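Notebook entry, structure prediction.
Reason for the run: the old model in the group folder had no record of what sequence produced it. Starting over properly, with the input documented here first.
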Amino acid sequence: MKIDPRREALLKRTFLDYQQTSAFLEHPVVFDRAEGVYYWDIEGRRYFDAIGGIFVASLGHGNPRVLEAMRRQMERMTFAPPLHGIADVTLDFIEKIGSVTPGNLKYVKPFSGGSEATESAMKFVRQYFKQTGHPGKYKFISRYQAYHGGTGAAMAASGTGKRKTKFEPQMPGFVKVFPPTHYRSYFSSWEECNRFAARALEDVIVNEDPDTVAGFLVEPVGNTGGIITPTAEYFEIIRDICTRHNVILIFDEVITGFGKTGRMFAAQTYGVTPDIICCGKGISNGAIPVAAMIAREDFADAFWGRPEDEVQFAHGHTFAGNPLACAAGIAVVDEIVEKKLDERAVALGDYLTARLERLKKHGVVREVRGKGILRGVELVRDTRTMEPFPELGNALKRIALDNGLILRVDPSWFAVAPALTATEEQIDEMCDLIDKSLVAALDRVSAAVAR
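New structure, fully documented this time:
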């Protein structure tokens, strides 16, 4: 794409996420519109959106039900003063979310994005323990290779290495454990590897002193680690460990929530109920920023009292519970429930996985993993040594875009999460583009080595 001087000048006056502007200007992409599973750029070129923008547009871009709900709400009210009251539609949103959550997770606080939700959950837990006789419980354990957001505490909880080092020192009170993938070469089975990784959590809690550990924050499917997909037993073990040590188990479902894994939440997919779920992204289908922290209903008791007790949750955001955002969120849940799109994610995911497995013929795929329509493909130099192949991923990212395909590549794996509304024909189209791009990337890397 060629861009005019005005757009080039404007690009130099902003920041692009996790990429250098000078490199972006060599191959710029400026989008103009989106519909269904496609984007179009300002030159009219079409792109297959294999990841819903960034795991957001689970119902496809421009879902009519969501847009109509927002239009209706726009005619009534788009903002309510949070220091003076709450919008009725926000109460409807709280009720709607509570109707599809597991267990007694009914206490809902809306926010504007995933980082707000995870950050707020950690503040909520610290205040909860201060008000329930455990003021020393303040530490949070999370996993290396995890990403929980770009705000202060969320970043400190993340285990993303170089994404964090530019901002060090990080906030204190955050401890890491390794995900099960870190140990997989040391065990004969994935199941035993997961058992070891899960039990390691208890070792850390004990050695940190359980009286200082407040929560364990974990993604049910780890995105930035390469769609890390633990066993159900892994979550059963960590659930038991957290319960025994009075540690709050927090699921970061910003990516996995709202149908992608085959149930409304991955907690339901795995059959393990955490104490708190943080969600975002797909909750509005990308139409407007919205997220939520969903906690056990009984937690609310610790925040209930007289005004002079000052035990209310000492936290708020201007756009938290925004009426327009809540209207969109209600429509998303209704669409998923009424059309059983979470169930559809299972069948569509099986079909998608079968297509992705065919990529193994190229000799550079170690594994296809994930749940429902959230799938990842790990790339290796060869399937004997299982050595990572970041050069291939870097080439794939560029070539896929040239071929009109938007993937999540990072760079020894790539991920897809097509819309729950995608057809098998569209899955075929997407997988054909992946195959074409992977072959071209292999050719480019081979040619570079030959030189």
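Summary: The first strand starts at residue 31 and ends at 35.
The old model has been moved to the deprecated folder.
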